[in-house]
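ok, trying the design again with the full structure, not the truncated one.
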């Protein structure tokens, strides 16, 4: 039987145990914002108008572009997800995970990645999604993108229209054993470009320390004395 434990205890074991699984958690943390809960209210026909998660098409903003949006559907009421450029309409299904690739291979925004959520009919239940965004490199600020940090203050509300409003508030982990190791992992990896692995390159002007002197080998043993010949003088020491 497996011991019952919550998700934070399970994650602590993976992170503290090291190895490839822990590195995977670290990369997911350093390249993403915190997950959020998105709720569309049926009372006001809630939904999301057509929009791009990756909006920096001119590549002039300092913040990295959104590379991937993960939407986990937590309800099965109206509000299908529509990607018109791809001709796709995905009906809601409890537990369905949608991965929307929003950037191209060079890190620029993909114009075909626009998506929307159909409005809910009056009288239906609210639609609930779990949402997480991943970025093209590790320079993303979790405090700026997901209100995580000591200065997060009050929740943020943004509206595209009278029926398309979103309330963002950081929902921190109740324990710190997971977050602190992941934050240190992110700091260690800020030196690497996207999708890179391995140690950080040496900084400019870095002079490596001199190599350690090799130990001198032991002198060879003296040759064995020659056999004495009858009538010869004794060997000289």
């Amino acid at each position: 039987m497996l011991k019952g434990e919550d998700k934070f205890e399970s994650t602590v074991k993976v992170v503290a145990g090291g190895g490839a699984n822990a590195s995977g958690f670290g990369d997911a943390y350093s390249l993403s914002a915190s997950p959020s809960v998105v709720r569309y209210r049926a009372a006001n026909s809630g939904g999301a108008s057509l929009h791009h998660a990756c909006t920096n098409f001119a590549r002039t903003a300092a913040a990295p572009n959104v590379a991937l949006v993960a939407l986990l559907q937590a309800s099965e009421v109206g509000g299908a997800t529509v990607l018109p450029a791809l001709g796709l309409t995905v009906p809601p299904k409890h537990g369905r995970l949608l991965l929307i690739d929003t950037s191209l291979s060079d890190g620029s925004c993909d114009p075909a990645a626009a998506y929307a959520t159909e409005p809910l009919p009056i009288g239906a239940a609210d639609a609930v999604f779990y949402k997480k965004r991943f970025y093209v490199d590790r320079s993303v600020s979790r405090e700026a993108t997901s209100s995580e940090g000591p200065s997060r203050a009050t929740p943020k509300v943004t509206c595209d229209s009278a029926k398309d409003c979103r309330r963002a508030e950081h929902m921190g982990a109740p324990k710190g054993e997971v977050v602190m190791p992941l934050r240190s992992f992110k700091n260690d990896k800020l030196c690497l470009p996207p999708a890179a692995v391995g140690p950080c390159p040496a900084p400019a002007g870095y002079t490596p320390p001199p190599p350690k002197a090799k130990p001198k080998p032991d002198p060879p043993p003296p040759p064995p004395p020659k056999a004495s010949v009858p009538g010869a003088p004794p060997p000289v020491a």
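Keeping the full-length input from now on. The mean pLDDT is 79.
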